[in-house]
Amino acid sequence: MTDALTAFPADGYTVRWRTWDHEHLETVTLRWENEGWTATGEVGREAVTYVVRLSAVWQVRQFLLFRDLPDPDLWLGTDGSGRWGEMNGAHRTDLDGCIDVDLACTPFTNTLPIRRLQLEVGDAADVTTAMIDVDTLGVVPVRQRYHRIGPRRYAYGNLDTGTEVEFDVDEYGLVHDLPDSFRRH
Fold first, then answer.
1. Model confidence pLDDT, tens digit, residues 75-110
2. pTM for this entry
3. Residue 69: its pLDDT value, please?
4. Residues 34-65 as b or e (16 or more Cβ within 10 Å = b)
5. Burial of residue 162, with CB atoms counted within 10 A of its CB: 0-12 exposed, 13-18 middle, 19 or more buried
6. Are 125 and 145 in contact (CB under 8 A)?
7. What is the greatest pairwise CA distance in the chain?
């Protein structure tokens, strides 16, 4: 039987992380709107704002990244089946097969596959994500593995680089601390 994650409150939820050195803060606000979730993150160290629009079952629908303009610097959309495009209509064939998005500057994007997959303890799943570089706006597919090793503990592995890290999540599937990177605030 799956140890199910707690549903987010209908009136929204806010979570904060600090960088490991306590220098910078990130705030993520989740809101239920238009029959899905919208996550808005303000990342202090990189001075960026991101918006991820999700379906009710945590499938990414849109991703927007704002750096220094009132309009998005990057705006991607997906059909939920791994076909991606830019909002100007250009199909991003290089991202075909990607299901989630990943930003190295935030632990929040780990929550996307954790909530979507609903793994049981002992199970693992490989996913392909669209890894976004906030500096260059480059987006590349990256193969990743999520392994649920305990009721609230996961191992994340980047299958392309061989790096792996273990972390705990709260009742919502949000990362507590990501060693050497982020701490819950």
1. 999 987 889 998 777 899 999 999 999 999 999 999
2. 0.93
3. 81
4. eebbbbbbbbeebebebebbbeeebbbbbbbb
5. exposed
6. yes
7. 47
CA pseudo-torsion sign 26, 110, 133, 40? negative
pLDDT digits (tens, 9 = 90+) for 127-148: 999 999 999 999 999 999 999 9
Beta-carbon neighbour count of residue 78 at 10 Å? 22
Q: Scan for tokens 């993150």, then name that residue.
A: 41
26, with CB counted inside 10 A (0-12, 13-18, 19+), is buried
| 122 membership: H or E segment, kind and range | none
Amino acid at 147: H
What single letter denotes the amino acid at residue 15?
A: V
One-letter amino acid identity for 166? E
CA neighbor of 53 nearest in space, from 65, 70, 71, 40: 40
Q: Which residue has the tokens 């909530």?
A: 115
